[in-house]
Amino acid sequence: RETLTQFKGTKLAALFSGRRENKLLRDTKGRVFLDVNPIVFKKIVDYHNLYRIAPPEDPPKLPTVPAELQETFDRLIQFS
Question: What pTM value is reported for the model?
Answer without folding.
Answer: 0.81
